[in-house]
Amino acid sequence: MTKLTDLTIAQALEGLAAKEFSAVELTEAHIAAMDKARSLNAFITETPDLAREQAKASDARRAAGEAKDLDGIPLGMKDLYCTKGVRTTAASKILENFVPPYESTVSQKLADAGSVMLGKTTLDEFAMGSSGGTSAFGPAISPWSGPNPAEAERKLIPGGSSSGSSTAVSARLAMGATGTDTGGSIRQPASITGIVGMKPTYGRCSRWGIIAFASSLDQAGPMARSVSDTALMLRVMAGFDRKDSTSVDISVPNYMDALTKSVKGLKVGIPREYRLDGMNKDTEKLWDQSAAMLRDAGAEVVDISLPHTKYALPVYYIIAPAEASSNLARYDGVRFGLRETGETLDAMYEATRSEGFGKEVQRRILIGTYVLSAGYYDAYYRKAQRVRRLIRNDFLEAFRSCDVILAPATPGTAFAFGEKTGDPVQMYLEDVFTVTLNLAGLPGLCLPVGLSQEGLPIGMQLIGRAFDESTLFTAASALERAAAFSHKPPFTA
Amino acid sequence: MAYIQGTSGEWEMVIGLEVHAQVISNAKLFSGASTTFGAAPNAQVSFVDAAFPGMLPVINETCVEQAVRTGLGLKAQINKVSVFDRKNYFYADLPAGYQISQYTQPIVGKGEILLDLADGTTRTVGITRLHLEQDAGKSLHDQSPNETYVDLNRSGVALMEIVSEPDMRSGEEAGAYLKKLRAILRYLGTCDGNMEEGSMRCDVNLSMRRKGDDTFGTRCEIKNVNSIRFVQQAIDYEAHRQVEVLESGGVIVQETRLWDTGKGITRSMRSKEDAHDYRYFPDPDLLPLVLDDAMIERVKNTLPELPDEKKARFIQDYGLKPYDASVLVAEKTSAAFFEAVAKGRDGKLAANWVTVELFGALNKLGKTIDESPLSADALGGLIDLITDETISGRIAKDVFEEMVATGKAAKDIVEEKGLKQITDTSAIEKTIDDILAANADKVAEYKGGKEKLFGFFVGQAMKATGGKANPGMVNQLLKKKLS
Amino acid sequence: MAIDQKTVAKIAHLARIRIPEAEQGSVASELSGILAWVEQLNEVNVEGVDPLASVNDASLRVRPDVVDDGGYASDILKNAPASTASFFTVPKVVE
Ligand SMILES: [Mg+2]
Ligand SMILES: [Zn+2]
Questions:
Q1: Both B241 and B340 in a single domain?
Q2: Between chains, do A367 and C31 touch, taking CB under 8 Å as contact?
Q3: CB of A158 within 8 A of CB of A192?
Q4: Alpha-carbon span B352 to B348, nearest angstrom
Q5: What distance, in Å, lies between the first and last C-alpha atoms of chain A?
Q6: Which residues, at least 6 apart from B191, have a Cβ–Cβ distance to it below 8 Å?
Q7: Are B413 and B434 contained in the same domain?
Q8: Who has the most CB within 10 Å: A31, A111, A140, B75?
Q9: By mean pLDDT, which of A33-42, A172-181, B173-182, B404-413 is the weakest?
Q10: Count of the separate structural domains present in chain B
Q11: CA dihedral C77, C79, C81, C85 (to 10 degrees)
Q12: Do B245 and B148 belong together in one domain?
């Protein structure tokens, strides 16, 4: 029999339903895996006791015939989701001891669906980063680094910012995990660690209770080891929430129905602007192969143009820091979090924020403050918002001639810690293929399609119309079947 | 217009007011926490109001309606699309590090207010805009020697910031503006106008210019002025301070100043030094607020009669003088009281009794019209006794005093004390005959041409009847007897 | 636009982040690098294009005026680094 930790969520639900194993057994297997893989630093806070308690309750529900959609499934929770009574840090020293007295809407929905929370996963501080390297609690290490990742010569990044989630899911520490995606933070780590990551349409999942990075871009989403698992999770996580003014009141379809649909006649757009000079050759090859696989499955592949693509990153690096500079003003040492002493109120603020925020967070706060400040607003922020509209218009135009767009999720494969840290702009380029969707508010799904020459996973991204996640699942499912990616990282717990 | 006489000439004040009016609503602007005044510290605070991580604002429908209602009451333009912005600055009682306000696209645009001045004239002051925003919490600086205490109960309460044009030229006009604005807000039921509890606060923008100039000088903003009297005092102080600076060759620094009630001075506010870079931008947690016509129409249809309309009607229907009418409409409750008294009675007489006698008595007692010891019905009863000649106007004043003191009905007092007017011709004739007989010498003088003595005879007759004789009949009979 | 050391000091203060004078120069060049990169936006013609603040097309949704929150001062204060008698406390502010 397959190890319990190797099962997909869908398989585990079948096993649980058939009484092949209990939720407690499934949870214990994952807790044991977490113990074994602690050096990967996938979790900032582990919650084994809570997990055991939830697993027991799950078994009781199942015995009573009251099992819910994700009953007994052990998941990791990105440490950006506020969890009642469980420390929530955003991977920042400034929230090192913050214990929220409330539960985020999405994590509550997952709990209500019977899932088991294993712990709070590592991330880049306040979700700002593409490597996981900015966490104040140390980075998560990709299980693709080698059979013993923590001792590997080149410790590979698991992507970011949802780095602990990608690490936990790919290393078989959790069956699935939550992520958040502001500029690619679900899709890029999924791509780099060979798992499936889904960023839903902006407004699909409630942002209430999730620590904000850039409010107009942030979206919660699932990460798991199969397209159907992300569909199962999204079905639970999505839905209208009155407490979030940007949540959209639109019904959530049963995504499972979409998985088995044919792609016959589906128009798949290939954006010519995504073919960058110096792009990883393996990535380029797999991109072409993926298009061919979809064509073979009955889809029609068409060329499309997204002319403002190259401006997406500069737009993002104005809008996101601007919103972040304001969103992070609440970390001031008064009501929660770290406080450093200061003679005056201002001295206290400055000591607290300089001590509490890491370098990258400080850098983005400064950029954001600058672009909003008197005299620069029009030249930077307003200009960026206007180009943002052009970027969205590109997609609206493209979707007149196609139903989904196929593109790589990242320009390359995983790099090692320390390799791209010298120049922040180099690091920012990691998000070049993902950030456009956040600016346009569109859904995107990344799934693994193959390995590079060096044996590292490469993911493709499917991009859909707003609130048309179903079509994404249909196309992704077809591609998943055709690509039949079955590689496991050199290390699994 | 009041000019200030300096050593080098006359100076004119240019005054604009920013009023923060607390919206009457049950819950806060963006959260479900209560707005009631006086709760224990931090008892009326939600995680949204305290800006906890991950918390999001959702706007209160009633607050939006109240802003629209106020806009309509100020005859202002209602903007069907408005935008909430973040105003970023750090302060201990501003939990998020930004205030959600409206900057470039407020919910209400240009309007106007008609000032009723003491000399009976009116003057129009422009309203620039009205926008919705959150209140901050409260900092207490005097509770501990080295700490400031912060209470967030007010944090997130809805405010309407109502900004005037720089149209006022004296402290008196500023006072009249605030009184009128407060009256309108109270009529509308959108703000209780209570300056002591801070539900209406005023910032004064003041600059000086030489008489005759039509450009503006550099202005200072005076914050924290929490009564109409203090507004006038602060303006007076600040105007003289600026004139002194200007005349001694100095320049006015544009700054925020604080009115120090204790010392009666304004002083520079240190905590506001980098107040000029608020980094406004549209709040990404909120979408543009779009009002539909039906909602605006519905609010319009429920607007009450407002002070200016009421004043016009009082002048028209009751024949009141503009000044009396404006005094009566200043408070909704006094206007209602007056109308209850005037109903079916002589309006002018009713106005006179309300504005002179009743207001005088209330003033002496330190009471408001809601606490009047006399109901409108009771005062009406007294006026009825004058009108039907049961008592004279002179006696009525005594009866009024008795009513105030004892709460008894006019009719009962007149009855008990036998104050009923004597209208029996033979009784008055008898009294007059006695007086004329006792003052034969004066009768002779009168007849000899000293007509001024007529008043003396009237006085004697009234005195003899204890003031109860009908004065008209006394006059008539005296004339007959003396001719 | 290149940022100088003085500007770094100014925005750092606005953001209440302390940057020692010795580091202001390197922060200035780092930020200048990022700004130089984002300034490629100057190539884009945005004439007649409205700024896009939100991808939601909808209008703001309202909430009824009902008191259904608050009343938990102890939860509000539980995470506070400093408090006295249900107040948050901060270093004394001179207005
Ligand atoms: Mg103001
Ligand atoms: Zn204001």
A1: no
A2: yes
A3: yes
A4: 6
A5: 16
A6: B21, B22, B23, B24, B70, B160, B182, B185, B199, B200
A7: no
A8: A140
A9: B404-413
A10: 3
A11: 20
A12: yes
The pLDDT tens digits for B179-219 are 999 999 999 999 999 998 889 999 999 999 999 999 999 99
B290, B311: one domain: no
* Tokens representing residue B359 in the block: 């207001």
* CB nearest to A207's CB, from B56, B59, B90: B56
Q: How far is the CA of A248 from the centre of ligand 1 (A)?
A: 33
Q: What are phi and psi of B212, to 5 degrees?
A: 95, -20
CA nearest neighbour of A456 among A144, A156, A169: A144
* Cβ-based contacts of B281 with chain A (< 8 Å): 322-323, 326, 372, 377, 381
Contacting partners of chain B (3+ CB pairs under 8 A): A, C
What is the CATH number for B464?
1.10.10.410
Same domain membership, residue B278 and residue B161:
yes
pLDDT at B197: 86
Q: Quick one: tokens of A297? A: 């499955």
pLDDT surpasses 90 at A444: yes
Task: Using CB atoms within 10 Å of the CB of residue B406, give its burial: 0 to 12 exposed, 13 to 18 middle, 19+ buried.
Answer: exposed
Digit-coded pLDDT (tens) for A216-230: 999 999 999 999 999
Half-sphere exposure of B206 (CA within 13 A, CB side): 31
Mean pLDDT, residues A199-203 taken together: 98
Which is more confident, A423 or A86?
A86
**ipTM value:** 0.97
Structural domain span for residue A227: 4-266+414-492
Q: Which residues of A263-292 are buried (b: 16+ CB within 10 A; e: fewer)?
A: beebbbbbbebbebeebbebbbebbeebbe
Report the pLDDT value the prediction gives residue B119, as an integer from 0 to 100.
Answer: 83
Domain carrying residue C14: 5-42
Residue type, A178: T
Same domain, B278 and B366: no
Number of separate domains in chain C: 1
- Rounded Cα distance between A124 and A165, Å, is 11
Q: Tell whether C16 is within 8 A of chain B (Cβ).
A: yes
Chain B residues inside the 8 Å CB shell of C66: 26-27, 32
In a shared domain, residues B348 and B273: no
In a domain? residue A95: yes
Assigned domain for C25 exists:
yes
Dihedral sign from CA coordinates of A156, A159, A161, A166: negative
B61 touching chain C per CB within 8 A: yes
Indicate the residue among B299, B325, B345 that finishes a domain.
Answer: B299
Supply the range of the domain harboring residue B464.
425-482
Domain boundary among B390, B417, B444: B417
- Residue in A with minimal Cα distance to B31: A243
A381: buried, middle or exposed (CB in 10 Å: 19+, 13-18, 0-12)? Answer: buried
Strand-pair category, A267-271 with A404-408: parallel
CB contact under 8 A, A334 and B52: no
| Amino acid B275: pLDDT | 59
Helix (H) or strand (E) holding B456: helix B453-464
- CATH number, position A177: 3.90.1300.10
Taking a C-beta distance cutoff of 8 angstroms, is the pair A357, C16 a contact?
no
Interchain CB distance below 8 Å, C91 and A389: no
The H-or-E segment that residue C24 falls in is: helix C21-38
Size of interface B-C (CB pairs under 8 A): 144
Q: Which residues contact B321 (CB under 8 A, 6 or more apart)?
A: B120, B315
3-state DSSP assignment of residue B251: coil
